[in-house]
Write a structure and sequence with these properties.
- By secondary structure, the protein is mainly alpha-helical.
- Helices cover 65% and strands 4% of the residues.
- The model has no long low-confidence stretch (mean pLDDT 91).
């Protein structure tokens, strides 16, 4: 694909980059390392040699995301701040895809008032400050308009491998522009970096190929050449596109089967049952996540389908919607844990933001088309309002961004972890309360291994069961008192080789013969164990 640059295109590209940067600031990012980053980044950062993480039990389990871990390894080895830049780029891809698709359907880029009205509304709907304010004042979660069902999402406060799903949105636009090879590459890269996208990528690829075949066939029919040769020609292009996606995802399918596949049916079923019903029922059980907010999102997706009617986009999003719906119904009827883990409703993380953009684009186009002739003298005012909305959201996002990581709770736990960093040594393994979110980033902040936590899990079934046993043992320790606690501590030392124990609570102590207090503040204390 040849790109001929000229001055106008360069200016347009420069303006978009500025708008995309502004959108990223308005959306905001959490500081490193938060939430899912502590799971998805662990293997890559451990491989980079940070601290003693290579000795961490979880870091030594089978890596479920080797391609993304390699990206994390490369990035961290150069400069960890590049993670922020990577997320900004992906946010820019997301924004470009929404603008491009909405413009393809409704032509909003042909009119500056329509374009900037669309941008202003998209900024407002994605502004983290606005989202927080609306939630606080009205009790409505604006994230329902661009997140998926079951608390799953394409974007999020933290950069992670699931964010590469924006490439599937970009693939939609490339398909509309008949850039089929580039669309296939986007689908393949998204699935490689996050295998959970294989299901969505398969549905989209199927829709691409069927649409291409039908269009080629219709072209041959129009030319009066319906014969075997014309039929083969109609099949040729979609065949190669589908094959390209398949070739790209085959290594992922092989890796998952070879390294993460069932050890035995019984062990795999036990691990899946714990994951579905105990650890993430809010992601995996329709009976848990199907609520009023979910009905709102389903309605948004249906409206998006209607707006895409008679366009080349319709069969693509219909394929995603019907594929997700049919497999969801099968999961509900069969109560299959395997399908629950597949989470076919994950297709909504693509359909909801796309449908919201289509709704906003259609409303802007229709309203401006209706009022446009009467607003000739106000066109600059419409553009100005859109620009002001974008600037305001960006400024508010920047102010909010600066506050991340400054809360008292955050600073309080940092004092304890700073002590751990100052006194780190080879062979250390910390025992921390597994269910407390305060300690989720202990590994990536300190570089010191921990015994276990609830947030981060392995993916291989036998390792998952070992993880669950460790969690139960740690919970028993923190729930016990007196001699029983010391007996459990001895068992944990034998199983996990722990050397330090974190105790939470102002008055809490660890009265075991092997434990010596080495740190205490108003909330946390650390005990070193004699070896």
């Amino acid at each position: 694909m040849k790109i001929h640059w000229n001055k106008e295109k360069l200016i347009t590209a420069g303006v978009f980059i500025l708008i995309a940067l502004a959108f990223g600031v308005a959306y905001t990012q959490s500081h490193l390392y938060e939430s899912n980053q502590n799971t998805k980044f662990l293997h890559g950062i451990a491989q980079s040699g940070f601290g003693y993480l290579q000795q961490d039990w979880l870091a030594k389990t089978i890596d479920p995301l080797p391609a993304f871990s390699f990206l994390v390894y490369l990035t961290y080895s150069v400069n960890q701040n590049l993670f922020y830049l990577q997320y900004l780029i992906l946010l820019g891809v997301y924004l470009f895809s929404l603008i491009a698709i909405a413009s393809y359907l409704f032509g909003i880029r042909k009119s500056y008032p329509e374009l900037f009205a669309f941008l202003g509304l998209i900024f407002v709907l994605h502004s983290r400050w606005v989202i927080n304010a609306v939630q606080r004042k009205l009790g409505f979660n604006l994230e329902l308009l661009h997140d998926g069902l079951a608390q799953q999402y394409l974007l999020g406060l933290e950069y992670q491998n699931s964010t590469f799903g924006v490439l599937i949105l970009l693939a939609f636009y490339l398909f509309l522009k008949r850039r089929y090879v580039w669309a296939a590459l986007c689908l393949g890269v998204a699935a490689i970096l996050h295998s959970a996208y294989i299901f969505s990528a398969a549905l989209v690829t199927l829709a691409f190929c069927l649409s291409m075949f039908w269009e080629n066939l219709q072209g041959a029919r129009t030319a009066g050449k319906i014969n075997l040769r014309a039929l083969l020609q109609a099949v040729k292009q979609p065949f190669w596109v589908g094959l390209l996606v398949l070739v790209m995802v085959l290594p992922v399918l092989w890796y998952n089967a070879a390294y993460l596949g069932p050890t035995s049916p019984a062990i795999f079923a036990q691990a899946m049952h714990i994951q579905v019903y105990d650890r993430i029922p809010y992601h995996s059980l329709v009976s848990v996540w199907l609520n009023t907010g979910a009905y709102v999102q389903i309605a948004i997706m249906l409206v998006g389908l209607i707006l895409a009617w008679r366009s080349r986009l319709f069969p693509v999003i219909l394929s995603l919607f019907l594929g997700g719906l049919i497999v969801t119904i099968i999961q509900v009827v069969t109560s299959s844990d395997d399908l629950a883990m597949l989470a076919p409703w994950r297709v909504s993380i693509l359909l909801v933001p796309l449908s919201t953009a289509l709704i906003v684009g259609w409303l802007v186009h229709v309203i401006y088309g209706w009022l446009g002739p009467r607003l000739q003298s106000m066109q600059y005012a419409v553009v100005l309002v859109g620009v002001v909305a974008m600037i305001s959201c960006t400024q508010l996002g920047w102010m909010l961004q600066k506050d991340y990581g400054t809360s008292y709770r955050y600073q309080r736990v940092m004092r304890m972890m700073d002590f751990a960093v100052k006194n780190e040594a080879p062979g250390q393994v910390y025992l921390v309360p597994p269910g407390e979110n305060d300690y989720d980033n202990f590994r990536l902040y300190t570089g010191i291994p921990i015994f276990i936590n609830w947030k981060s899990t392995p993916y291989k079934d036998v390792e998952y069961l070992q993880w669950y046993q460790r969690v139960q043992l740690a919970n028993q320790f923190y729930g016990a008192n007196g001699p029983q606690r010391c007996e459990l501590l001895s068992q944990i030392v034998a199983d996990g080789g722990i050397t330090e124990v974190v105790i939470q609570g102002k008055q809490a102590t660890l009265d075991c013969p092997s434990a010596t207090e080495v740190f205490r503040d108003t909330r946390y204390s650390v005990y070193a164990l004699s070896r």
